[in-house]
Every structure is written in structure tokens, then in C-alpha cells.
Amino acid sequence: MLDVDSTLSAIEGIDWLAARRSSEVGDRVKQLTERAMRGEVPLGGIYADRLDSVRPTRDEIAALGRAYVEGMEPGVERSLALLTNAGIRIVVVTAGLRDGILPLARALGIPEEAVYAVATRFTDSGEYAGFDVESPLTQNGGKVKVVRGLDLQRPILAVGDGITDLELRTVDPPAVDAFAAYARVVERPPVIRAADYVIRSFDELPAIVLGIRETATNGSPRSRIPGRE
Ligand SMILES: [Mg+2]
Questions:
Q1: What is this structure's pTM?
Q2: 1 alpha carbon to ligand 1 midpoint, in Å?
């Protein structure tokens, strides 16, 4: 299970959109995002606020889609192709805006059905008309709900940079079997401290995933998944 913002791609979509409004809106939204991703404020408390202050148009979301692709992290294509060829199922679960994220998924060969994100609505002329307020992904614990609902085969590894990714591992019972903090774009100490793995390159990912699968398949006598001891 992969996160998108500051993980598959170096940008935070909502911050990127906000920066196009004004430096004031950009700074405010960026601060809110950072505090939510550190777990200092609940995501649900700021999600609507951020979008309401940006109100992205359909064209802007399309531009965001291009920015996500341009900002793709090094090694992502290679790493995901290798994992897919090895029979690993890949899903993307993100609080980002679905229409902005689909171009990146397409570029990576990830089918639309494997992308779980937040839908936005537009008027006929392409003006912002709201987001899917029912989406669990706009709240803390949302990724947990989505992943639990997917009926994924265990073991599951979550890869992300934020507290909402870490929650998948720390919730009781855990929704995933291991969590890898992706720390090349942003280093968030509370997320990194609790992670099973910390990676700074996507090239590190295949060995971790295949190692986990190997352990699970061969019934290794070790009681825990290999990681940081
Ligand atoms: Mg992220």
C-alpha cells in the first residue's frame, strides 16, 4: 500500500495548489498540512479548511496531475515494475485529490481501480464545487478503514511519510503487517521513530517487500517481520 504526496511524488498536492493562490494562502495551507502529517492536529479538522481556501478548478487539478508526474520520486517506476512482475499487488491509498493523482497512477501502470483517493466535484464550466465529504480518507484513521475494506492478502506493507500512514501499523489490531517510512522528501520524527523500516530511495523497496513475502511464505521461525531490531 503506497501513499502519494511526499512519497511517490515529491509534492504535497494541496500545498502545490495553494501556492498558486498567493504566498499567504500557500504558507497557511502548508503549515496545516505539516501539522496534520505530524499528528499535531486531526486531518479531519483541516481538510475542508484547506480545500475551501484553495477551491481548485478542474484545469488546476489537471495541472496538478502533471506536477505529480514531473515530481515522481527517483526509482519509483523501476521499483514498482519489479514488484508488479514479482506478483505483488499494489494499491494507492491517499487523502489526495483523485483527479490529480490518476495521471501519476497511469504513468506507473497502476489501474484506476487500485487508486483510493478523494473525489472532487466541479461545475460545468470547471469551477470547484466541493469534495466527497463522506470519504473516510479526509480523516485520521481513514486509511485504516479503506485498507481493512480491501480484503488484501497478508502480509501487507504500507509505505508513506505521514502519521495517517503510520496509523495503519499502530492501530489495534494493525491493518498492515509492516510500515516503511519514506523519508527522502520529508523527515517527520514521530513517523520515523515508530516505523519498521526507514527508506530514502525506492530502490530499497523491492528487497524489503520480497523479504517480507519470503518470511511469510517459508514460515520463518522468527516471530517478527525482519526490520529494524
Ligand atoms: Mg504523504
A1: 0.93
A2: 12
